[in-house]
Amino acid sequence: MAEANAVQGRKEPVEVDVGSANVRYCNVCPDVKATSFCEDCHEYMCNDCTGYHKRITATRNHMLLSGDRFPTVKPQRREDKLTAAIEKCPDHPKEEIKFYCHTHNTICCVACTVLKHEKCSKSYIPDIAEDFKNGNEFRKLNANIKDSERQIIKSFADIDTCLKAVDALKVYKIEKLRTYKAKIIDYLNKRERELQAEIQNICDNDVALLQKLQINLKVCQSDLADISPKLKLHEQNSDELFIAAKRAFDRMTKLQSSMQNITDKIGYQRYSVVMDIRLQKIAEDKSGFADIQLGTTSKSVH
């Protein structure tokens, strides 16, 4: 088989007229002449690729034509592939994804199986896609999507509750400060502004954090909403559904990690306004009439 660094994605079959014969080149090894043609895969192969094709379970029973029986015209894809969107390999853009590597839990093309997964446990996607569609793994994916949708809705509600609590707490504590202020009004004007500014800073920080979480949550919601339609789009084609679902698992892992990070941060800073014990002596003691004492961040939003 040609060296691995010669494979840059499968090229179109080359035909060179030589008298009454045609010379064709391997689809995987661009510079090696083809010695067989697979009627099932619609691909030309060199000697090495032909041998590998015969060894793996998924393709060992395919119909192979020798050089003297090559198609006289450019072979056409099967009808079902004429109407369906063909998934291409990211490493070999001209190659279709046809195999699933159990060893590395990844989807791959013929070139990948030769160059990267020759000794791995592999399955031909059409052989396993229908069972996957009806199996527990796919049902679990759909269940995870629904759970995540519910979690996003709940997190939005929790953030709204926290925003209201932050605002209510701010109003209450400032009013309490003003009650203290009335007792020693001549001195408290300056201290009140200082404490209000500190409270407002805490409030602003809480609101900024919660609003940022809202934005991040909307991004998660948008990403999540994009997964189900893509799965539904491929419901009628098990091969494509399998590929789409495998990709969805990767997206869900990242999405759920982001959502957990958001959930862990939902809350607000609790604090208390306490009367200064020196309030009675405020005329002589210029230290102030109250302080802000921060408590733990509240997560009790239910």
What does this molecule look like?
It is a single chain. The protein is of the alpha+beta class and 302 residues long. It folds into 2 domains: 4-133, Double Stranded RNA Binding Domain (2-Layer Sandwich), CATH 3.30.160; 136-298, Butyryl-CoA Dehydrogenase, subunit A, domain 3 (Up-down Bundle). Helix content is 51%, strand content 15%. It contains 7 helices and 10 strands. It has helices at residues 47-55, 79-83, 110-115, 125-133, 136-183, 185-233, 238-265; strands at residues 16-18, 21-23, 36-38, 43-45, 64-66, 97-101, 106-109, 122-124, 268-275, 290-298. The chain has a 3-stranded antiparallel beta sheet. A hairpin with a 4-residue loop joins strand 6 (97-101) and strand 7. Helix 4 (125-133) packs across helix 7, helix 5 packs antiparallel against helix 6 (185-233) and helix 5 (136-183) runs parallel beside helix 7 (238-265). The longest helix has 49 residues, at 185-233. The protein is rod-shaped and about 110 Å long. 25% of the residues are buried.
In short:
This protein is α+β, with helices and mostly antiparallel strands and 302 residues long. It folds into 2 domains: 4-133, Classic Zinc Finger (Double Stranded RNA Binding Domain, 2-Layer Sandwich); 136-298, Up-down Bundle (Butyryl-CoA Dehydrogenase, subunit A, domain 3), CATH 1.20.140. The protein has 7 helices and 10 strands.
